[in-house]
Task: structure prediction
Amino acid sequence: MVVYNQISEIQKFLSGLNRDKQSVGLVPTMGAIHEGHLTLLETARSENEFVISSIFVNPIQFNNPRDYNKYPRNINHDIELLKQAQCDGTFIPTIDEMYPNPSIISFNFGTYDKGLEGAHRPGHFSGVGIVLSKLFNIIKPDRAYFGQKDLQQAVIVTKLSQDLHFGVEIKVVPTKREADGLAFSSRNQRLDTSQRKDASRFYSALKIAQKALNEGQPVNKVIQTVTHYINELENMSLEYFEVVNSETLNPVSKINSKEKIALCIAGFVGEIRLLDNIYLDEN
Ligand code: AMP
Result:
């Protein structure tokens, strides 16, 4: 696997491919590679001749500087894992390479970035939109792979690619979980033993909510149950639990069997913010 730090280097490599016959799948990450990233790479591997990953902790998508500074970084270990995953190349640019000048652009994704994460992380999706637009322009992948774990991101990136004619097919890969249901996440590395045990409550809360909704309990009652279930532990706090249409991301107050519904949760264990979701009809 070749590591590229410069845009010109990776573009030189890409220009040598016969793009009619050799498709390129891109897996963008912020590093601290874990099994969740590896499922994206595996899917990309099965669908493309070339698999390129990227590692870039994008400063402009963090609204909390402490979260940015504390974000786990372990490039050498990441490179080993990416090699094992049979990635052909990885793009690891510096901040100056990606932002030679501060970006003057900002994205507004209409109703799609106003709720859920967007409501709690001002500017986050604009930052995500900018960095992915850069990566799509630099690498020009045929397909790009995103996790269902960041459902709102996956929906917004699909819109971005369509609206701006990037011609990148956006693929969404199901969430990979630990044995107790906790979704793999780079931020899990920051949990101590007791926090790690408590963190699985986010998934349990989603499963409790899923069961209650499928049994016909009203949405507002289920929101109360989940709020109590998370907040009853002293070191945990719920930021939001929402029942939404998984395509429009609009909140749903009544379950309608014709809509695809997602249950979305975010909150804190200590100072570490975690995020998860499941579909109402998933196992
Ligand atoms: P990140 O490095 O956190 O920006 O994540 C890079 C990509 O991996 C994003 O598309 C995430 O949605 C995806 N991802 C993160 N965690 C998981 C997981 N547990 N299962 C599947 N995909 C994931």
Q: What stands out?
A: The chain has two domains: 2-173, 186-279. The chain has eleven helices and nine strands. Strands lie at 2-4, 24-29, 50-55, 89-91, 143-147, 169-173, 236-245, 261-269, 272-279.
